[in-house]
TrEMBL record:
This is Kinesin-like protein. It comes from the Eukaryota. Belongs to the TRAFAC class myosin-kinesin ATPase superfamily. Kinesin family. KIN-14 subfamily. The chain holds residues 132 to 483 of 780 of the full protein. ATP binds at residues 102-109. Residues 23-343 form the Kinesin motor domain.
Length: 352
């Protein structure tokens, strides 16, 4: 009983905070300079955890503020520590969406997927969900299911089906009787532990790169979505909940010059632009609380509709490069993220 009281107290407190701050967060993460890069245009103020400054080509400086700013030296643990309360709220019945947005090569996949030595948000999240489920097992029974899909050129592909020798099954979004968006035919794997999850995530990454000559190139041009469905049953009250957590590694946001690309590449980049701006439009409509939210403008936003808005929680990682050669794209990403958050950047703090 005490536990339940604590739970409801925590939920109340949390809701008050959410009410106060809105339920959209933007975190910025700047990757380290690479060996062949020498000049950083991004600076951090040691006393301000949520600010960064960018030196523009005319030497002016622009100040950007987010809910948190991660620096090149911040590791995967530091990132996850801030992400934890948002992802685990799926166990309390909330729908949650997390995105990694940015130019190719800025660390979107590193943040979400990570490497076997430095695992990212996806794996750490599932690990934590299993841990908490066990901890609560005398009061709550949870069942976890995982799906993984890719949106490429506005087509949906199941990443948990080894389809190299099979024709690709056409997947479409349908509205269920409860009004939620479903993808009939998509594999939903029940998962019981983290080892199994790592196997599934690796299968998904492998399937994602099949059929392309260059795995990295292909993956930078598609959105990769990991969906965790949580079915909860309160063993005391009998109340059941179903909630979803989406962990999304978006396609690279860089603009491709018309001259550089052939027909297919141009088509791809138009699809990417369209879906990323649709995502920006949806989140900024939610942030500004306008009545019409244009979910139907892309497959990406349509599929996520039930997990964006309402009392769902949204977190966007805007990933940036500190390298001077990437300045244009860095500014574009930071401006996009500021627009999404509904807050424009201000002038730089005066240098002392
Ligand atoms: P993206 O998914 O945005 O295209 P990647 O995640 O593939 O970018 O990152 C590009 C490269 O930079 C990878 O080799 C990755 O391991 C490395 N990298 C990115 N961010 C970091 C970081 N914060 N710390 C260490 N290495 C990073």
């Amino acid at each position: 009983k005490k536990y339940l009281e604590e739970c409801s107290e925590r939920k109340k407190l949390y809701n008050e905070v959410i009410e106060l701050k809105g339920n959209i967060r933007v975190f910025c993460r700047c990757r380290p300079l690479k060996q062949d890069e020498s000049t950083s245009v991004v600076e951090f103020d040691s006393s301000q955890e949520n600010e960064l400054q960018v030196t523009c080509s005319d030497s002016s400086r622009k100040l950007f503020k987010f809910d948190h700013v991660f620096r090149p030296e911040d590791n995967q643990e530091a990132i996850f520590a801030q992400t934890l309360p948002i992802v685990t709220s799926v166990l309390d019945g909330y729908n949650v969406c997390i995105f990694a947005y940015g130019q190719t090569g800025t660390g979107k996949t590193y943040t979400m997927e990570g490497t076997p030595e430095n695992r990212g948000v996806n794996y750490r999240t599932l690990d934590e969900l299993f841990r908490i489920s066990n901890e609560r097992s005398s009061i709550m029974r949870y069942e976890l299911f995982v799906s993984m899909l890719e949106v490429y050129n506005e087509k949906i592909r199941d990443l948990l089906v080894e389809n190299s020798n099979q024709p690709v099954k056409k997947l479409e979004i349908k509205q269920s009787a409860e009004g939620t968006q479903e993808v009939p035919g998509l594999v939903e794997a029940r998962v019981y532990g983290t080892d199994e999850v790592w196997g599934l995530l690796s299968l998904g990454s492998r399937v994602r790169s099949v059929g392309s000559t260059n795995a990295n190139e292909q993956s930078s041009r598609s959105h990769c979505l990991l969906r965790v469905t949580v079915m909860g049953e309160n063993l005391v009250s009998g109340q059941r909940t179903r909630s979803q957590l989406w962990l999304v590694d978006l396609a690279g946001s860089e603009r491709v010059g018309r001259i550089e690309v052939d027909g297919d590449r141009l088509k791809e980049s138009q699809f990417i632009n369209k879906s990323l701006s649709a995502l920006g439009d949806v989140i900024s409509a939610l942030a500004s609380k306008t009545s019409h939210v244009p979910y139907r403008n892309s497959k990406l936003t349509h599929i996520l509709q039930s997990s964006l808005g309402g009392d769902c929680k949204t977190l966007m990682f805007v990933q940036i490069s500190p390298n001077v050669a990437d300045l244009g794209e860095t500014l574009c990403s930071l401006n996009f993220a500021s627009r999404v958050r509904g807050v424009e950047h201000g002038p730089a703090r005066r240098q002392t």
